[in-house]
Amino acid sequence: MDSDADDGRGGGLGRNLTYGLLDHLGRQIVTGAFETTPFPTEAELSEQHGVSRSVTREAVKMLTAKGLLTARPRQGTSVQPVASWNLFDADVLRWLLERKFSVDLLAQFNQLRAAIEPAAAALAAEAADARALALIEAGFARMEAADRGEDDGLDADIAFHLAILRASGNPFFMQFRELVATALRTSIRFTNRIVGRTADLAAHGAVKEAICARDPARAQQAMAAIIGDVMSLIAEQRAG
Amino acid sequence: MDSDADDGRGGGLGRNLTYGLLDHLGRQIVTGAFETTPFPTEAELSEQHGVSRSVTREAVKMLTAKGLLTARPRQGTSVQPVASWNLFDADVLRWLLERKFSVDLLAQFNQLRAAIEPAAAALAAEAADARALALIEAGFARMEAADRGEDDGLDADIAFHLAILRASGNPFFMQFRELVATALRTSIRFTNRIVGRTADLAAHGAVKEAICARDPARAQQAMAAIIGDVMSLIAEQRAG
DNA sequence: GCTGGTCTATTTATATGATTAAACGGAATC
DNA sequence: GATTCCGTTTAATCATATAAATAGACCAGC
After folding, report:
1. How far is CA A50 from CA A8, A47, B58, in A?
2. Residue B85 sits in the same domain as residue B192
């Protein structure tokens, strides 16, 4: 308990010892802390972090459920290859994006967005009910307000994109809500000149209009333009 | 040769008591067993399944990590709303698809495939290396063999689609490999007349050719045609 | 020397108990 | 009526013991 290794308590994530350890180990794993050194045994983890074996085991089990670890008797606990990590777990994605900040990973995530969000916009144009449309319009209104300096640009942008994913009516597309929010929020440090620009406002408005007009093709195209714009800006950052 | 990802005992289900309980509870949750009745307490779970509290707690922690449960002192453990389930966890998806067999869910998953796989095919046409191309060709060769009755049609179909996702070079697209495999394998009972048909062979060949020719647009279009075909067949099943 | 089995040490897996902390209902209080 | 306080319930945590699994050392037999 006099171990100063886990003094980061009190943070929002440190809801309890298990979640604190989960977060700590998750970060360590994605930053490659155990690429050269073997993953500690239960006893070592417990001692290093000053917690009981129960806490250690439950944190390890959660990391196992997220695909980061595997544990076998006598062999010990070891980090799984990246291919088996569940990148669509919000915790895992956050750890990955927060680690060093990988522009490559952000670019790859936006390749995914380029596939997902236009399709979601098209579905939304077909299937959105009144409530979903209202949320999209509310999101856009916030972006307009942000443009006038009356709201937060990032929050407004996120709200708009999440509203469209929700309006798709497809639970698999809705699943990306948390991931997109995480990615946008985590990457703000790097791309804060990108989101919330005036240029975006027109493009977002075009998406909103197309969905309200029940025009899937136009909605898809307009959303593709937004993501394409973001991707080219990331490519610029990458080059220069 | 036979890369048995699943150990003899049904893929880690009966690997130990914790995984057994995890699977059992996961199925119960997605089938709605606790929609009316409250989720049991630790002590009740332990007693009902004849296992120790350690096993119970660790299984609950894994289900928590997958977004199915939440636990708080005094309030007990309770099932989370479906919106917070991690549908991109292979276990969760399998439980969902196996439960009753939901055609709606299968249709929605194929809406996702319609967004993902054409984009992956386009990326593959741009980025695939020699090894990735070889895997795609091997997958197609297996489909041809299956058409002659010399291989399993489902396995061949899965191998082909997974090879393209891998060839995209994007870890987020690769993430869908396990999910697509799970969905195809689980839905075979329902759609076994769909996969492995002769008509598919030409469409799959077109995708392969386009990727080998480094033609992203054509690869995307050809893949979209395949998924579109599957979707219309599901729609038929649904109607009739 | 090689082959095959056994034995042992190590580590996770499981069981069990006791204690602590958090959340909530409701009684007591103002 | 709102607030404070207390008791109950339950998960959270700690601690310890035993079981199971297995990698690697060891050993017998040929």
Report:
1. 13, 5, 20
2. no
Helix (H, G, I), strand (E, B) or coil at A31: coil
B91 in the same domain as B39: yes
CA distance B220 to B93: 26
Beta strands in B101-212 (DSSP E): none
Give the CA angle between residues A219, A225, A226 to the nearest 5°: 95
Interchain pair B112, A64: CB under 8 A: no
Q: What is the pLDDT along chain A (240 residues), one digit of tens a residue?
A: 333 333 333 334 667 899 999 999 999 999 999 998 999 999 999 998 999 999 999 999 999 999 999 998 888 899 999 999 999 999 999 999 888 767 889 999 999 999 999 999 999 999 999 999 999 999 999 999 988 888 888 899 999 999 999 999 999 999 999 999 998 888 776 665 554 455 588 999 999 999 999 999 999 999 999 999 888 888 887 776
Round to a whole number and report the distance in Å from the CA of B84 to the C1' of D6. Answer: 36
* Chain A: residue whose CA lies nearest to B90: A86
Phi, psi of B8 (to 5 degrees): -45, -35
How many domains in chain B? Answer: 2
User: Which residues constitute the domain of residue A154?
Assistant: 101-239
Q: How far, in Å, CA of A145 to CA of A228, rounded?
A: 24
Interface size between A and B, measured as CB pairs under 8 A: 94
- Nearest-Cα distance to chain B for A147, in Å, is 31
Cα gap B27→A129, rounded to integer Å? 31
Q: Could you count the other beta carbons within 10 Å of the beta carbon of residue B174?
A: 18
Q: Which of B100, B121, B154 is the last residue in one of the domains?
A: B100
Closest Cα in chain A to B53: A54
